[in-house]
Amino acid sequence: MERARAVVIGGVITGCSVLYHLARAGWTDIALVEKGELTSGSTCHAAGLVTQYNPSPTMMRFRRYSIELYRELGVFETVAGARIASSAEQLQELRRGVSRARGIGMEVELLSPSETLERMPAASPESLYGSIWVNEDGFVDPHTATYAVASAARELGARILTHRRVTGIVRGPRGEVVAVQTDQGPIETEVVINAAGLWAPRVSAMVGAFTPSTPIDHQHIALEAVPGHELPRDMPCFRDPDNLVYGKSETGGILFGGYEPNPAARWIDGAPWDHGARSLPPDEERFAQLFEGAARRFPFIRNAGVVALVCHPDAMTPDANPLLGPLPEIPGFWLAAGLSLNGFGGAGGMGKAIAEWVTTGETEHDVTAYRPWRFGDVYRDPQHAAEVARETYRYYYRLRFPLDTDQLGRPRRVSGLHSRTQELGAVFGTKNGWERPDYFTPTEPWRRAGEDQRVFGWAPPPYLDRLAEEHNAVRERVGIFDLTSFGKIEVTGTGALELLERVSDNRIDKPTGSVIYTQFLDHRGGIVSDVTVTRLADDHFRVVTGAGAVDTDVGWLQQHAGPSVEIREQSAELAVIGLWGPQARVVLQAVTDDDVSNAAFPFRSAQMLRVTGARLLAQRITYVGELGYELYVAPDWAVQVWDRLMEAGEELGITPCGYRVLDSLRIEKGYRYLGTDLTAGDDPFEAGLEFCVAAGKDFIGSEALARRQTDGLSRRIRTLLIGDGYVTAYGGEAVVHEGRTVGRLRSCAYGFTIGRMIGYAYLPVELGPGAEVTVEVFGEQVASTVVDDVLHDPTHARLRT
């Protein structure tokens, strides 16, 4: 039997990059298996543009490294790149983009219309508002670049086996990978990296896993040169999001493609094995809108002859992020798939990251957002996964305002309280398939939010007054929330406590009924999860996390669990009602005979209560900084409990509230949000969560934290008051001190109690309370002040009494 230390499946650019970087790390007994020739999938049809700007710091670094790799191999052409604004709204988005780029360490230039035309004279001045300019952007020839990376891997000892299709993957007694079956015999191995592109879901199915990656048709056209309008080879690459197109010059003519707002998904049950390098019949009617967009920017192309109109599918995930890393339940099986149009741009960095992870157990950059296990069972339905993938493709260029909401594939999951919140005028957003109220409009019918911000643009949202009402209800009276979308993970078994102690920075071994706030950390001390853990019995725990984080957290626990632990995601099994505000105890006591006084039911504890015949678990915990409870109840009792609470609170002014107001409430209290304020690049000491780190405890990341304590902190999260009144900041904006960018806003919201815009940013430790900085908002420097972490009730007396 053949043997290889690792087998990479798929001869796409990313597969070749993984192979090369494994070989460069010293793994020479490795093989890549490809069912056809190299580049015989989407790779061969790519335009090959490699641009650096991306709102994700990790993807930006991947793209920077990709350019370095292609230059090293002699296959990269640097021509610079322009991202064009063809509307006033897009210009504002570009201004946001410049600030966000500076905030993550990338210098870009914002050009005026005349400056743009100086550098790209072939463009039309019509509806030209400006552009972002990146000097180091360029392109590769897809075929040449892929073969160059493959040749470099071969020179280091790697094998490339073409015209050999994988037919199965053999697993051992622990479910681990032991061999790859092919149509030319098996290859024994302990590591398989699925880089099969369009066919990645079918390869994952060979080990019983699912990969939510959908082929979405993508079209581009090559046009002949137009006499008198021949384009130089070094013309900058261009992206014109308003017109939905990107492109570059090619042999004097132009090659451009784009992103239709009505994309077509295909092969949602699996791409056929015999599809390879061939293109598909183009849809000229659908492409016409892209041609018109390109012609608005380059009118002369209307006289160009067509070389070829190409249609080919690209693999899109539900969030347009790639799938990178191991699958926790299948030892030895890795993914580098679902590239979502990040192929050549990200391939170098993604291949390097996978090789680092496989060979050392860690990656240089934070890849938390790309974990392949982040999508749960709701995406096992290929039709739903396809609809959400179409949504992400639709907005790949179309201006997506920060307050807009996904529309396709809805409704998918509704809580037991959905009808009640409908009756109350809910405006529903969506998270991980759940319909949940963003806010309420009591005098109007319920509806699902969508492109709402397209109506009011970059102005303050028209529902601010309603958010103020919901905010004030929680601060002054009592607010009631449908929190059913909370992620809930049951952890049981004789090894449950040991597992949770190992992954948590806080101490979990506390009496039954305790609610513990904690983080899960990686080996470098970075925050990968932010949860509460409730001890229900000696060997029975419930982990509560965000709706979007639950599948990631399940995977993290599975990675570290032993055989004596059972981990079960139970989000849909329990409805959750949030009851928060100074009158919350009065309302709750009115509907139960159980004692909920402060002495009987203290802060950060949980106990069973009976309400209107229902037995439910109440947790005294808060995300808004007020007295209150989370009530966990069977869905078939949720409406009865909700109705009793509403009835009991009527005279007290109980108010239904949505998720949007949580940002305002929590940011006044110094509470953090996972994914923006807390990432794997931040540790608990930097994040102001040192109170969660149990002294003397051994847990994943504890050694790294101890070293950082010894070395001292260089930065810390700080609270900023930004400008006066409401400021249209959304997060990501650069923070500047004495002319130097020192950080970026992680999150921000208007604090209705404080009456100011509040933001969080990681800043050098010397910039403590009292320091003056500015925040770059749409190109303007807004005066801001560093203040204390907690602005409302800094002693926390309101939530403890």
Explain the overall architecture.
This protein is an alpha+beta fold and 801 residues long. Helix content is 25%, strand content 28%. The strands form eight sheets. It has an eight-stranded mixed β-sheet with strand order 7-8-6-16-17-18-15-19. Helix 1 runs parallel beside helix 8, helix 2 crosses helix 8 (343-360) and helix 12 (464-476) packs across helix 17. The mean pLDDT is 95.
Helix/strand class: alpha+beta
The number of helices is 19
% residues in beta strands: 25-35%
Helix content: 25-40%
Quick description:
The protein is 25% helix and 28% strand. The protein has 801 residues and is an alpha+beta fold.
Protein topology:
Blueprint: E1 2-3, E2 6-9, H1 13-24, E3 30-33, E4 49-50, H2 57-72, E5 77-78, E6 81-85, H3 88-103, E7 109-111, H4 113-119, E8 130-134, E9 138-139, H5 142-155, E10 159-161, E11 166-171, E12 177-182, E13 187-188, E14 191-194, H6 200-205, E15 214-223, E16 237-240, E17 245-250, E18 253-258, H7 284-297, E19 306-316, E20 323-326, E21 333-337, H8 343-360, H9 382-394, H10 418-423, E22 426-431, E23 434-440, E24 447-448, H11 453-456, H12 464-476, E25 479-482, E26 487-492, H13 496-503, E27 515-521, E28 527-537, E29 540-545, H14 550-560, E30 566-569, E31 575-580, H15 584-590, E32 606-611, E33 614-619, E34 628-633, H16 635-649, E35 655-657, H17 660-668, H18 702-711, E36 715-722, E37 734-737, E38 740-751, E39 756-764, E40 772-777, E41 780-787, H19 797-800
Parallel strand pairs: 1-13, 2-3, 2-14, 3-10, 6-16, 14-21, 22-24, 25-35
Antiparallel strand pairs: 4-9, 5-9, 6-8, 7-8, 11-12, 12-13, 15-18, 15-19, 16-17, 17-18, 20-21, 22-23, 25-31, 26-29, 26-30, 27-28, 28-29, 31-34, 32-33, 33-34, 36-39, 36-41, 37-38, 37-40, 38-39, 40-41
Helix pairs in contact: 1-5, 1-8, 2-8, 12-17
